[in-house]
Write a sequence for this structure.
């Protein structure tokens, strides 16, 4: 099911059609370079969708801003969503197939069944 | 003194004497039953000192002092953890005085230990230096005299003119003759309705009568199989068919000595040296559950005996420099059994053909289809790691330097995927990179999560990350868990898919060649480094070491490594497809195998630091001796720790490279051997 492979945004906070019953927000040291480097790897709309679903959008724009490397405000928002928010219990949903993947104790389970692989 | 009180004193003394005698006899029986040590009533130069063992907290110096009071001690063997010691005096007279020490008490810490001494036949110190014989197995040395031996050997006529009386077959290897009933090798059973005329040879009768008299047998056997082994011949490991014969099996060894290997289904093995003229008594678990066999060899590796050195510390079993080669001669065994008339009702149904309608489940074999492969890996990889996660993680705490080097060389902000990350050992090595891990074991990933790493459950064959996103991937000790070449290649392809052009992957897999460039890997080295009190459960699942176990393994190491070093393609297997169980810390004799893991500390439940385990040389805390106890019976071993088997395909030199060459869009940057692993660094081709 390549749709899953293609859509899953990099970190566990890159949720698509997410549901979370338990979320943890912690403080992580902000490193702008770190965040900048992560952004090109993300499926931006998937990230936005996920954050929205968690009610943690908090001003994250629907479209990726240009010149984001220098936009500290923007980077901080991304940082928060990517690194500070953890879904401890919940599930990930593939937007194409609707297939759900559970998250348990902070660990998403992305295993496919034999027939799905 | 009044006559009355004198009598009372005499009575009291003899009561004490009787009590002492009773205790001595009891100790003697316990030693026979649990340790396979048989005591004799005639004076000899050697004694067993029950309760005078390291396992009772008795120190060598203490015991040496006491024993030395009465005469010159030639050797003193104190097997680790055992509740007895074995002493040989210079002269029989001294030994007799030693025997009179019976009942002597020692102060050991805050306990009083009472010693009971009995005569034994020669201390074959190598044999007794820590052997933990399989339960039910007893070896009685010098059971027949040289004259009797000659008589018995003469009586066996290997020529074929007695075809009516005995059925003589020349098998591919050893020579065999049957008496009483013929044993059939096609169904491994006996023709119970067709007794052979003549019964058992007359010359055997005195031997059998002695067996009964010495309480090794209760009834006379009615079947005899004579095996003759030339040097280089052996017999494959097997359990004597339950339904064919009763519990007791007696085997008299004539001629040259040999080494017989006993193997427990869970992988433990004990090598027992059988001297000429000795009687092997097999009952219970050793007869019904353990397999026994003789490896076809021309030499056995046995420990060198140095009886000249006084009180030699022969309990240092890991000292391989003390080994020697013993050339095999011709050995003839007489195996006496009683034909079974009723179905077997032993307590070992898993190995019993009476209690199992079909043959016991055969060991797993190499998969022939994707489904088979998935099932094999599910049972012998994924399930196992889930069970052993905690213990496993505790033995995987030191990142390997060369892997760290690779990780540290990545640019800050690089995206790293660790496919098969386990407990996340490598995820934090370079804090400048963005690392994400995946693994099949939720239990191990839990540990990652607790450590603050990003990780998720997935299969290495289907990693849910987008293509061309990673600057680097690592897969350390993962691919060798896939059971077909196709699947192994598919993982490499998956790693390459994840890489962005110019990205690099580092792969480590376990190597057949554990010794390379004359450097033994840590995995092999560990046996040497363990001192006498070191834990060797990862070696043979015994709390105390089995010397004879070491002998075999050292032999295998020497043998197999030289074979491998010269000819990588000559990797022999037991059968084309069956997976054999590997003996930890020895060289590999097959590329596809099951490697035991001895679980400590409750697996999933308690995450205690512990030793045991298996492979790549990472150790937890030191093992300590149990507190001393006075014991006439040995402190029973705690139930053997559960053993799990993990499937591995170990790679030959060049094999990993060959695999990577088949993957498109990637070049091999480097290829090397590191600590018993074959390693490659791949680079994805294409423009950035």
């Amino acid at each position: 099911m390549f749709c899953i492979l293609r859509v899953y945004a990099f970190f566990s906070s890159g949720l698509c059609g997410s549901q979370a019953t338990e979320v943890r927000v912690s403080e992580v040291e902000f490193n702008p370079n770190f965040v900048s480097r992560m952004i090109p790897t993300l499926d931006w709309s998937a990230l936005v969708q996920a954050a929205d679903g968690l009610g943690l959008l908090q001003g994250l724009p629907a479209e990726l801003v240009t010149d984001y490397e220098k936009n500290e405000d923007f980077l901080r928002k991304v940082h928060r969503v990517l690194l500070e928010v953890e879904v401890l219990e919940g599930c990930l949903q593939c937007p194409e197939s609707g297939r759900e993947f559970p998250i348990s104790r902070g660990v998403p389970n992305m295993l496919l069944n034999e027939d799905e692989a | 003194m009044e006559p009355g009180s004198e009598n009372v004193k005499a009575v009291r003394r003899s009561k004490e004497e009787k009590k002492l005698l009773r205790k001595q006899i009891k100790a003697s029986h316990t030693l026979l039953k649990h340790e396979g040590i048989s005591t004799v009533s005639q004076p000899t130069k050697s004694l067993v000192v029950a309760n005078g063992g390291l396992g009772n907290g008795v120190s060598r110096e203490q015991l040496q002092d006491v024993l030395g009071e009465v005469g010159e001690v030639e050797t003193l063997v104190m097997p680790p953890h055992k509740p007895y010691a074995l002493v040989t005096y210079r002269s029989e007279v001294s030994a007799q005085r030693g025997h009179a020490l019976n009942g002597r008490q020692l102060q050991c810490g805050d306990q009083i230990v009472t010693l009971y001494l009995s005569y034994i036949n020669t201390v074959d110190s190598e044999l007794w230096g820590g052997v933990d014989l399989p339960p039910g197995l007893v070896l009685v040395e010098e059971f027949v005299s040289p004259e009797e031996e000659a008589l018995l050997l003469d009586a066996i006529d290997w020529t074929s003119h007695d075809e009516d009386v005995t059925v003589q077959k020349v098998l591919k290897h050893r020579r065999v003759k049957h008496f009483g009933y013929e044993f059939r090798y096609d169904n491994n059973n006996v023709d119970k309705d067709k007794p052979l005329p003549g019964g058992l040879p007359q010359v055997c009768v005195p031997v059998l009568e002695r067996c009964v008299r010495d309480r090794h047998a209760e009834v006379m056997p009615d079947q005899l199989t004579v095996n003759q082994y030339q040097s280089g011949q052996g017999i494959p490991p097997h359990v004597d068919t339950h339904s064919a014969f009763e519990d007791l099996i007696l085997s008299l060894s004539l001629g040259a000595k040999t080494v017989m290997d006993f193997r427990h289904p869970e992988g433990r093995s004990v090598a027992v040296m059988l001297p000429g003229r000795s009687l092997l008594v097999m009952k219970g678990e050793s007869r019904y559950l353990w397999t026994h066999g003789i490896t076809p060899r021309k030499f056995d590796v046995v420990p060198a005996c140095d009886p000249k050195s006084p009180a030699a510390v022969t309990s240092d079993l890991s000292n391989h420099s003390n080994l020697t080669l013993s050339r095999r001669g011709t050995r003839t065994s007489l195996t006496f059994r009683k034909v079974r008339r009723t179905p077997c009702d032993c307590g070992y149904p898993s190995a019993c053909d009476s209690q199992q309608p079909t043959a016991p489940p055969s060991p797993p074999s190499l998969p022939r289809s994707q489904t088979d492969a998935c099932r094999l890996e599910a049972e012998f990889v994924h399930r196992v790691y889930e069970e052993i996660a905690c213990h496993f993680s505790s033995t995987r705490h030191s990142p390997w330097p060369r892997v760290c080097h690779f990780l540290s060389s990545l640019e800050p902000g690089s995206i790293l995927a660790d496919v098969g990350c386990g407990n996340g050992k490598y995820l934090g090595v370079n804090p400048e990179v963005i690392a994400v891990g995946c693994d099949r074991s939720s239990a191990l990933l839990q540990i990652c999560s607790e450590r603050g790493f990003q990780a998720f459950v997935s299969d290495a064959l289907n990693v849910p990350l987008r293509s061309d996103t990673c600057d680097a991937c690592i897969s350390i000790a993962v691919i060798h868990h896939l059971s077909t070449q196709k699947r192994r290649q598919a993982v490499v392809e998956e790693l390459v898919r994840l890489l962005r052009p110019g990205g690099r992957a580092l792969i480590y897999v376990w190597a057949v060649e554990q010794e390379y460039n004359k450097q033994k890997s840590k995995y092999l080295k560990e046996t040497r480094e363990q001192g006498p009190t070191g834990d060797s459960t990862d070696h043979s699942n015994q709390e105390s070491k089995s010397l004879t176990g070491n002998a075999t393994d050292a032999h295998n190491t020497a043998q197999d490594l030289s074979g491998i070093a010269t000819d990588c393609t000559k990797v022999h297997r037991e059968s084309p497809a069956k997976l054999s169980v590997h003996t930890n810390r020895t060289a590999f004799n097959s590329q596809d195998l099951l490697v035991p893991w001895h679980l400590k500390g409750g697996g999933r439940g308690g995450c205690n630091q512990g030793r045991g385990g298996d492979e790549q040389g990472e150790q937890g805390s030191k093992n300590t001796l149990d507190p001393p106890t006075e014991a006439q019976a040995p402190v029973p071993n705690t139930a053997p720790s559960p053993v799990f088997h993990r499937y591995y395909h170990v790679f030959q030199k060049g094999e990993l490279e060959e695999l990577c060459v088949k993957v498109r869009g990637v070049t091999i940057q480097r290829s090397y051997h590191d600590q018993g692993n074959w390693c490659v660094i791949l680079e994805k081709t294409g423009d950035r």
